[in-house]
Amino acid sequence: MLYWLHWIDLAGVAVFAIAGTLMAYKKHMDGFGVVVLASVTAVGGGTLRDMILDLPVFWVQDPSFFYVITAAAAVTILWLRRKETFPLKYLLFADAIGLAFFNVMGLQKALTYGASPFIAIILGTMTGVFGGLIRDVICREIPLVLKGELYATTCILGGAGYILCSTFGSSIPVAMFVAFSLTLSLRLAAMKWGWALPVFNPHDKITDE
Amino acid sequence: MLYWLHWIDLAGVAVFAIAGTLMAYKKHMDGFGVVVLASVTAVGGGTLRDMILDLPVFWVQDPSFFYVITAAAAVTILWLRRKETFPLKYLLFADAIGLAFFNVMGLQKALTYGASPFIAIILGTMTGVFGGLIRDVICREIPLVLKGELYATTCILGGAGYILCSTFGSSIPVAMFVAFSLTLSLRLAAMKWGWALPVFNPHDKITDE
Amino acid sequence: MLYWLHWIDLAGVAVFAIAGTLMAYKKHMDGFGVVVLASVTAVGGGTLRDMILDLPVFWVQDPSFFYVITAAAAVTILWLRRKETFPLKYLLFADAIGLAFFNVMGLQKALTYGASPFIAIILGTMTGVFGGLIRDVICREIPLVLKGELYATTCILGGAGYILCSTFGSSIPVAMFVAFSLTLSLRLAAMKWGWALPVFNPHDKITDE
């Protein structure tokens, strides 16, 4: 495994821990539960990825991930105690960065361990999406991934960008950088301009019985 | 592993993908999140089963499952865009078929890999129930499995039917067919006639403090 | 693996099954779904622990756990049918005992299979917290672990007690007993006197947009 991938994993864990802490703050949670929520958000996607790939779970032999989560949560808490307001967009922004990091990491790890490109794109998307999905389900929010705005789609397009780059002979770091930038910029654009992918006819009627 | 089991798994995945798409429609979701919800519903139970049995997760080496999910979701979306109404019973019906398919598959796979009959019945039930449970939790519905109507019970009785058949010397396909029919017909009957298994006294009072 | 650890696992499973059944009762659930909820609560934490440690899941080769769950749920149901009232504190009390049992078991199992003390404390906390977390998420309650009162913190302090004891040369049973007592008494004290760990400034304002 490439040595610097570890740092990307750590970075993804840190931003998702921040996103989890912000959500805990938004939902008026308190106590150590904040760190639990930050941890679930931060390691949820990667844990699922490793269990599905039947690899040792990435944080079990390496305590540094939980040091990073604790530090990220602590800094966020201190910052929130100073500031008296908290714009929701910070949460969405941290979530977008975490999404892009984890998408790339999941994709790269799946490819490294022999998954086909198609399955690697799915595992990347799953890694990116799952931590935030658990966070939202635990907090009883409608998961971001299920709202109309582009979310999982940005991971799939970012992953496709990676596969395209490596097909045309890019080195792994370049392909990863392209996938990261593509996922992040698509997600930010979707947030800014409300890009969506409507699949249902808005005039449909539902008869519940 | 028997060759045609693959087709049963694909069929179960397809109907649960339809059930997931219908639920997404019912909850006014949109975008690619619909396919995410369809996928979670469709592969959730089998993924948990394989992780618990410590086997390679069934879809990792085989992209066909996601082709089937995408196709099933696409057809359902197109159909929903044509029809202007959507009776809830279609969702319950697709869910019942998926339940029966996955119950049988989970049971068969657990037995194939050496689980005892008792544990195999539990793993079958878990495979059948879990995808729909995640779907309902994500969508903030009361999970079908926790409502009064027979649900998990039908899986257990279907599984018991399998064990009984194979005890009396049936071949595997016959036992699987019996278990499938038993689970499905019990579940449909429970839906039609409201069969339930009351365990609590309806006149109980709860003091919350 | 030490022989009597099995009994501790069984005891933890039994009290969490009771807690799951009480929650099902509180939420007016019925049918076999009650047993499903009891099972999820009882085996959820340990299943996750074993999947993360990449060990065979503890109940797959041993049906006794599900006999215990069924028996515990049945006794609780009979008791609830007799009594006409149900004080919520019974649920919280069963949950506290299960939390302490599973914390110790998770910690011990992680150490036995070579985890570092730090990771073992996290895995113990996860084992203790996760079953109840799933139970609360499925029942659409705010998870106990995310409320302000000490919850995950008691597991961490209990785990730290274990590590301290074994550093000073205690035998494993003594260290386990200390960790169990510490976790349980801290949790009960937190419930009685509302001990909390406030991390956010209560006067903060949130701007949602």
TrEMBL record, chains A, B, C:
<protein>
    <submittedName>
        <fullName>Trimeric intracellular cation channel family protein</fullName>
    </submittedName>
</protein>
<feature type="transmembrane region" description="Helical">
    <location>
        <begin position="64"/>
        <end position="81"/>
    </location>
</feature>
<keyword id="KW-0812">Transmembrane</keyword>
<feature type="transmembrane region" description="Helical">
    <location>
        <begin position="150"/>
        <end position="169"/>
    </location>
</feature>
<feature type="transmembrane region" description="Helical">
    <location>
        <begin position="118"/>
        <end position="138"/>
    </location>
</feature>
<feature type="transmembrane region" description="Helical">
    <location>
        <begin position="6"/>
        <end position="25"/>
    </location>
</feature>
<feature type="domain" description="Glycine transporter">
    <location>
        <begin position="7"/>
        <end position="79"/>
    </location>
</feature>
<feature type="transmembrane region" description="Helical">
    <location>
        <begin position="88"/>
        <end position="106"/>
    </location>
</feature>
<keyword id="KW-1133">Transmembrane helix</keyword>
<comment type="similarity">
    <text>Belongs to the UPF0126 family.</text>
</comment>
<feature type="domain" description="Glycine transporter">
    <location>
        <begin position="93"/>
        <end position="165"/>
    </location>
</feature>
<feature type="transmembrane region" description="Helical">
    <location>
        <begin position="32"/>
        <end position="52"/>
    </location>
</feature>
<keyword id="KW-0472">Membrane</keyword>
<dbReference type="Pfam" id="PF03458">
    <property type="entry name" value="Gly_transporter"/>
</dbReference>
<dbReference type="InterPro" id="IPR005115">
    <property type="entry name" value="Gly_transporter"/>
</dbReference>
<keyword id="KW-1003">Cell membrane</keyword>
